[in-house]
Amino acid sequence: MPHLKNPGLFEKVYKIVRTIPKGKVATYGQIAEILGTRDARKVGFALHANRDPNIPCHRVVSKEGQVAVNYAFGGGWKEQKRRLVKEGIGFKDLPRGKAGEMHVDLEKHLWTPEI
């Protein structure tokens, strides 16, 4: 994993992620924007490095709504999806071969933070 020059960034990411309510998801880019950066990858690095199961990293997806292929808490994308479905998150019904089972319906479930 790349070394980041700002170790406090991870804690800032985790603080934001803790505020995402059940039944909603945020994108890496949304969190980066809240932090005042355009680097969504740093948000991804922070979430992948997290080892605290109390931080709801499963509620963060790509800008297209795709869950993480290498979800950090084991079980890959299927585990992330299982956690989201348990919280009432719906997934897109895309044509076969388009990985719809991996894409959250952002129109219904995208978090709108109060800033």
TrEMBL record:
Residues 10-89 form the Methylated-DNA-[protein]-cysteine S-methyltransferase DNA binding domain. GO terms for biological process: DNA repair; methylation. It comes from the Bacteria. InterPro entries: ATL_DNA_repair, MethylDNA_cys_MeTrfase_AS, MethylDNA_cys_MeTrfase_DNA-bd, MethylDNA_cys_MeTrfase_DNAb, WH-like_DNA-bd_sf. The keyword GTP-binding does not apply. Keywords: DNA damage, DNA repair, Methyltransferase, Transferase. It holds the Pfam family DNA_binding_1. CDD domains: ATase. It catalyses: a 4-O-methyl-thymidine in DNA + L-cysteinyl-[protein] = a thymidine in DNA + S-methyl-L-cysteinyl-[protein]; a 6-O-methyl-2'-deoxyguanosine in DNA + L-cysteinyl-[protein] = S-methyl-L-cysteinyl-[protein] + a 2'-deoxyguanosine in DNA. GO terms for molecular function: methylated-DNA-[protein]-cysteine S-methyltransferase activity. NCBIfam families: ogt. This is Methylated-DNA-[protein]-cysteine S-methyltransferase DNA binding domain-containing protein.
